[in-house]
Records
---
Amino acid sequence: MHEATLVESILNIALEAAEKNHATKIFTVGLTLGELAGVEVEALRLSFDVLKKNTPADDAELVINRVPITAACNKCGKIFQLERYNFFCPECDGILILQSGRELLVDFVDCE
Ligand SMILES: [Zn+2]
């Protein structure tokens, strides 16, 4: 399952950060997640709760910062917030270029 693999990498990053800081407990893991990253938040949370067991992140909370999909028109330069990725400008039929929405990264790790 895609989300489980993802959570494994997230946990690895968090555990490495804790180790570097000689921390024994992780409180919060902050994640930036674009709407277009193709990740099911519920599945992600579920995997996190399962995989964190018996690690220093046992009680850690996953905080997810969702990033909307935005795109800029290559003709008129307008920036649109999109529900889904759309290739053409609704105003002038220019081509939309994705600005944000694909983000997938660990923002911060709060540990002891
Ligand atoms: Zn346009």
---
Amino acid sequence: MNRKRVVILGATGSIGESALNVARDIPERMEIVGLAAKSNAQKLAAAANEVRPESVCLVDETQIDVLRKALDYQPRILSGEAGLLEIACLIDAHMVLVAIVGTGGLRPALAAIKAGKDLAVASKEILVMAGEIVMREARDKSVHVLPVDSEHNAIFQCLEAARLRAGRDDVVGSPRDVRRIILTASGGPFRETPRTRFNSITPEQALKHPTWNMGPKITIDSATLFNKGLEMIEAHWLFAVEMDRVEVVIHPQSIVHSMVEFTDGSTLAQLSYSNMCFPIQYAVTWPDRVPNSLPPLDFSKLSKLEFSTPRYDDFPALNLARRAGETGGTSPAVMNAANEVAVSAFLDRKVRFTEIWGIVEQVMNQHTPVAHPDLDAILGADQWARAQAQECLQSAKA
Ligand SMILES: NC(=O)c1ccc[n+]([C@@H]2O[C@H](COP(=O)([O-])OP(=O)(O)OC[C@H]3O[C@@H](n4cnc5c(N)ncnc54)[C@H](OP(=O)(O)O)[C@@H]3O)[C@@H](O)[C@H]2O)c1
């Protein structure tokens, strides 16, 4: 299975574009057999015309004619939520890359696991919401969950390098030998901005990430540090470590992508330039490493690597996420959903930057968590949190 047959969900996004670059770079190891997006028919068609997957899916059924006209060959065309589930289970596919922003990737990810496909997970939201279910189903079906988020891919590489896999053929390391998982965070564009200036932050300023070029939702999350908060919970599920062993350190250069400290005090780190092709390739070729055209680090040009403690009081997202992760059950899903609503309202200029944290906290305070929820309970909590967050927005306006 050297040439992996991959379906990309979220093909028109930032991760989708990087995944297409990986496929161009290592065609002998990666073949794209399915591409899916939500509504961007032209971009989906352009990608499909180039890589010619056997199936394409556009969730938005009103754009299907646009897609059909823009395609210069005749793949199987799927649409709607049902189409997304179908393309996630293609018989021919080995792996499904879930790169859908928000919660839309959860059902197709679970369907792919049921169909026996390995998952490459960029969509951290699905592990935040339903990490317990996703990891359990993956274990039951003996499929691999390979992290694509650069930090988690880095941790995975450190665990692999240390041969800490717990005698099982999956990505879970051995928590016994891991003392701490240390997630690095660039700190976002406001790393050094005084809190007194936060109220005047505009979407344009928040969308200018200093080191990464990503979709709008994750870029705003990087500015509030909710992205790192979501990643703490993601790490907890992926690597089966308790929340109190997951820590965050600010590292503005985004060269060290994360670290694992072991019980003997040694720390392993993974380093590369900030380009999502690195983690995507490793997820696709794992356990192999193969040559590519990506630039290796030039240490003569790296003047410094800095590390510092996050400003927890000024960026409350980290404490909120720790609380949600430690509470567990439906709490992370509620935090995630309230954050999505708040971020979207900020991008629409309906709330100020600082109100994002306030809305999430208010919704979390109103929630009574359900322990070990099933999928319906998680989706119910997600919907409840969205409605509560909308109410917060209305009362903020009044
Ligand atoms: N970008 C990064 O560098 C990065 C790094 C680590 C993790 N991630 C994670 O990867 C995920 C994707 O991020 P991104 O930055 O690539 O986002 P993005 O650029 O906004 O792209 C989102 C993609 O998801 C598709 N999509 C949205 N809702 C959908 C739905 N309901 N059903 C099917 N497709 C849907 C979009 O299709 P349309 O274009 O048709 O709307 C688009 O292809 C997020 O969970 C993010 O946290 C991203």
